[in-house]
Specification:
The chain is α+β, with helices and mostly antiparallel strands. About 55% of the residues lie in helices and about 15% in strands. A 5-stranded antiparallel beta sheet has the order 4-3-2-1-5. A 3-stranded antiparallel beta sheet has the order 6-8-7, covered by helices on one side. Helix 2 packs antiparallel against helix 3. It is elongated and about 115 Å long.
Length: about 375
């Protein structure tokens, strides 16, 4: 059977397709080799504590696969004789692939200024919060994606970029009205980064959600609650809410109200106060500027109240809980030894019957 050029796509001869296939496979192989080399160099640079160089080679090895395919197709279409009725299509596809290739590369190279900015903050010890870095990185990447889309539209429409931008400006007004909330949350991310009410990793409390901040995006901030749930809060709302930064507290305050029975003599009350003071004297985690406070504070309806206030420093929660447990056990032990009884809520009901009240029984 005779193989003619009509048997192959684009009416190309067999030898042309063999050249195309060989060229395509060679460029892909070269791309994979370079990818392995760049990946190894990136890892070694990271181990050598050269993050900028590591980010540079990481961007290349992440984008090399797509770049190799695009370059192989572009060169192949240039070398192989494409019929005129298909040349416009192949040229358009080639141009779009090249734009996407370099766009993906620039998208990953955005990591370099972000890493450099983070290193600059570490060296200068400036007060600017590192939480701005993720917002900065994502903003640059969004900008790169927009430029890629504009360039692809320019290739497909064959119109000047200025005309496309003007058209996008007119359409952007309508989009802005439809995406007011998204824009508000986007601006809110910069407000949070500039105001710095918290940092990534710090534990905060907002609207009943208690946990560390995991990430700050262009639209939402994610909090991992103490029971493991991931909560996303829009930045526009977060910027207008009251935020309690638990991680920034200098200490943990505890207030204990101990009720003793009303038949406790004043001498025993004083003994109880002395016991509480001795338990907390120079206690673990005490700050000398705020020593513990012990008072006979109230005459409650069902008890005499002894109030204890102490502060634990530094604010390590689990150490605080362990210390509080020791204090509780020591209070119970010492009060029992001293014969001081704890009060519990009681209610006495007096039933009175007037003399003239006569109980009568109705008979049918």
């Amino acid at each position: 059977m005779l193989v003619t050029s009509e048997a192959f796509p684009f009416n190309m001869e067999l030898n042309q397709w063999l050249v195309f296939a060989f060229l395509f496979a060679s460029i892909l192989l070269l791309g994979q080799i370079l990818k392995l080399v760049f990946k190894r160099v990136s890892k070694r640079s990271m181990k050598a504590n050269i993050p900028v160089t590591a980010s540079f080679f990481e961007a290349f090895y992440k984008s090399l696969s797509f770049i190799s395919i695009s370059i192989a197709l572009w060169i192949g279409f240039k070398i192989v004789e494409i019929p005129e009725n298909y040349s416009a299509l192949t040229n358009t596809v080639s141009e779009i692939l090249i734009v996407l290739s370099f766009g993906i590369l620039i998208y990953y190279l955005v990591e370099i200024p972000a890493v450099w900015f983070e290193i600059l903050l570490d060296r200068s010890n400036r007060s600017l919060n590192k939480m701005f870095i993720p917002v900065f990185r994502k903003t640059l990447r969004v900008f790169v994606v927009i430029l890629i889309i504009i360039q692809v539209i320019q290739i497909l429409s064959d119109k000047p970029i200025t005309s496309i931008i003007a058209g996008l400006g007119i359409g952007g007004i309508a989009i802005a009205f439809a995406a007011q909330d998204t824009l508000r949350h986007f601006i809110g991310s910069f407000v949070i980064a500039g105001d710095r009410p918290f940092e990534i990793g710090e534990r905060i409390l907002i609207d009943g959600h208690d946990g560390p901040v995991e990430s700050i995006g262009l639209r939402t901030t994610r909090i991992r609650t103490l029971d493991g749930h991931l909560v996303s809060i829009p930045n526009g709302e977060l910027a207008n809410k009251t935020i309690m930064n638990i991680a920034q507290r200098p200490n943990i305050k505890r207030t204990i109200n101990i009720g003793v029975t009303y038949d406790t003599k004043p001498e025993k009350i004083q003994e109880g106060l002395d016991i509480l003071k001795s338990i907390l004297e120079n206690h673990e985690g005490m700050d000398e500027e705020i020593p513990p406070r012990v008072f006979f504070s109230d005459l409650n309806a069902d008890s005499l109240n002894l109030r204890v206030i102490y502060w634990y420093h530094p604010p390590s929660y689990w150490d605080f809980v362990a210390f509080s447990e020791k204090v509780n056990l020591e209070i119970i032990k010492r009060f029992n030894e001293a014969g001081i009884e704890f009060a519990f809520p009681t209610q006495t009901i007096h039933l009175a019957k007037e003399k003239n009240d006569v109980l009568t029984e109705e008979k049918p």
